Amino acid sequence: MTKDELQSRTIDYLRFPLIIGVVFIHAFSSVVIVNGEIKTCESIGPLFYYSSEFFSHVLARTSIPLFFIISGFLFFYKKGFTPQLYKEKLKSRFKSLFIPYLYWNIFIILYHFIIQSFPIKNNLLYDASIIIRNFTFTDFAHAFGILSPCPINYPFWFIRDLMLAVLISPLIHSFIKKTKVSGIVFLGVIWYLGFWFHPAIIRPETLFFFSLGAFFSINKKNIVEESHKLFTSSIIIYSIIAIVDLLTKNFNFNIYIHKIGIICGCVCFINIIAFFIDKEKITPNKSLVIGSFIVYAIHEPFIKIFRIILFRTLKPESDGLMTLIYFIIPILIIFITLFIYYASRKLFPRFTKLTTGGR
C-alpha cells in the first residue's frame, strides 16, 4: 500500500482503541465504597492500584492528545487555507461537531430531569449534585460549556475545545506558517510547564496538540512516516517512561514525567498500529470506527450505574475481585453502547446519522 493509504488506515484504526482509552480514564475512581466503607485505590491492594493507575492514568492518557493531533492534521489535510475553504470547514464541522454536541448535552439534561422526576431514594441513576429543576440560566449556560470548561456531558469537553480550535484555525494556520517548528515548541513548553490564562477559554493541551497535528498537515508531512523515524526509540523510551510514570504517581514531579510519556506514547502507538497494518495483521473495522462516537457520547452515565450494581451484587473485598470489576465495567459499557448504536442505526438511520455528526 502507498504511504498515504497506510497513514489513512492508521488514523482510522486508532479511533476505536483511543475511545476505549477514554472509557478507561472515566472508569477510574480515586475512592470506592466497599461494604459501606470508603477506601482509596492504594488501600484496596497493589493489584487494583497499579492496574487502574497504569491503564487509566498512564496508557489511556495518550487518547485525548492523539485525538487532537489527528483532528488538527485532518482539518488542514492536503489543502491550502483560504477564506472560502474556512467557511466550508465551519459548515462541515457544524454538522460533525456542533449538532452532536448540542444533542448529547440536551440528552444528558433530559436524562437527569426525567430520572429526578421519579421518587428514587438513592442516586444510583444520576449525579445527586446535578438537580435540573433548580438550574438557573447560568447553570444551563455552564451545562453547554459556556463560561465553563466542561459541559454537563463531561467527556464532551473535548468537542467543546475542538470547536474553539476550529474557530481560531486561521490564527493557528498563520501562527504555524510564520513560526514553523519554533511555534510548536513554544506551545509545547507552555503546555508542559502548565503556564496558561485563568480562567482558560481553551486548554493549552488542546492548542498544542491540535497545532502539532496541523503542523504536519500544513507542511505536507506524512504523520506515520515521520513517526516511523523514531520507531524503535519511541517503543523503548515509552516503555521505560510508562513504568517510571506509574511508580512515581505520588510524587509532585510526576506530572513532568507523565507529560513526556504522553508525547512518547503518541508516537509509540502510531508506530505500533502502522506496523501491524502494514504487515496486514490488522485492518480498520468501519463499523467500530463509526460506532466509537456513540461509545464516547453515552458511556459516562453507565459507569456509575455499573459500578454500584457490581459492587452491591458481588460485594468485593479482595484485591483480585476489585481489579476484575475495574476491567469488567469498561468492557460492559463498550459492548452495550455499541449494541445501542447498531440498533439505532438499523431502526433510525437518519436520526442516528444526524446525532453522530454524519458518521
From TrEMBL:
GO cellular component annotations of the record: plasma membrane
GO BP terms in the entry: enterobacterial common antigen biosynthetic process
InterPro entries: Acyl_transf_3_dom
Pfam family, one: Acyl_transf_3
Coiled coil: none
Main location: membrane
Record's bilayer topology term: Multi-pass membrane protein
Compartments it resides in: Cell membrane
Keywords tagged on the record: Acyltransferase, Cell membrane, Membrane, Transferase, Transmembrane, Transmembrane helix
Listed name of the protein: Acyltransferase family protein
